[in-house]
Amino acid sequence: MSNAVSPEFFGLLRTPVVKGRIFDLRDQLGGKPVAIVSESLAKEYLSDGDPVGQEIRVVGLSSTSPWFTIVGVVGDWKHMEWDARWVASPTVFRPLAQDPTADGSIGVRSEGNLAGLPRAISEQIKSVDPLIPNYAIETLDSRLEKMRAYPRFRAFIVSFFALTALAIAAVGLHGTLTQFVSRRAPEFGLRRAIGARTANLFWLVAGHGGIPVVGGLVAGALAAAVVVRLAVSLFEGFQLWNPARLVWSVVLLLAVAAIAIAPPARRAASVDPMTVLREE
Q1: Which of 154, 200, 214, 237 is most exposed by smallest CB count within 10 Å?
Q2: Paired strand residues for 89
Q3: What tens digit of pLDDT does each residue of 200-226 get?
Q4: Are 178 and 260 in contact (CB under 8 A)?
């Protein structure tokens, strides 16, 4: 990525200068082409030796793009990847004074109430040249909100379907165990009659429903580890493994399973042996 900027740009966005200098009056139109590079670009392409003083050429900038002498290294900018991660962007900054025809934006730092700021900026631009378009005035926060809109929408859709699947699984587990208890009510009554305790019947039903759940969680965790390894091998820089999230997911699934299992288990544990035997 390449941008033409003024010397005040780095101070405006509080971008730290790691090495060298920023642009100054020496960097005028017709002078020696110079550039400032981001720290990630220096580490990736200029790792052998001090990047300040080396030359770099921006391919695609123009058919006759010159070689730029690096005069400084600044902190990284970041951009949002498709998976909503912020990653460093290798960037080349050129002096705006050496490329006055480049497309650009005006940045303003302000404190306090921002309500009237867009109008004030627009009036100042019109006072310089009424023909300059200035319809895209927005705050940095609003631009970030636009960038986050799609990842948030995607996360909402995924969460909705995940919660729907979890609810269907919980209803299915509850219904299966309810039918299981209903069919085996005589057996539970007989067990109570010959001395089985309430806890024994409760854990009998809980185990009938809980063992498949635990087995599924173990299989799912192993499958997730395999899928993550495959994704990491296919996409460089892809990061998905998060032990904390995995643990919380397992805890949530266990909690939902316990809520679905508890009512049928309590029903089995409270079977009245006399009522069941009388019905038989």
Answers
A1: 237
A2: 77
A3: 888 888 888 888 888 988 898 888 878
A4: no
265: nearest Cα among 207, 193, 212: 207
**pTM for the whole thing?**
0.60
Cα dihedral sign for 92, 93, 94, 99?
Answer: positive
250: three-class secondary structure by DSSP:
helix
Q: How far apart are CA 256 and CA 158, in angstroms?
A: 19
CA distances (Å), origin 189, targets 154, 194, 209, 267:
51, 9, 20, 11
Residue 86 CA neighbour count, 13 Å, CB half: 6
Distance, in Å, from the CA atom of 1 to the CA atom of 131, rounded to the nearest integer, reads 29
Based on C-alpha coordinates, what's the Rg of the chain? 33
**Which residue type occupies 106?**
I
pLDDT in tens, 263-277: 888 888 887 766 656
Which residue blocks in 17-139 are alpha helix, DSSP H?
Answer: 39-45, 117-128
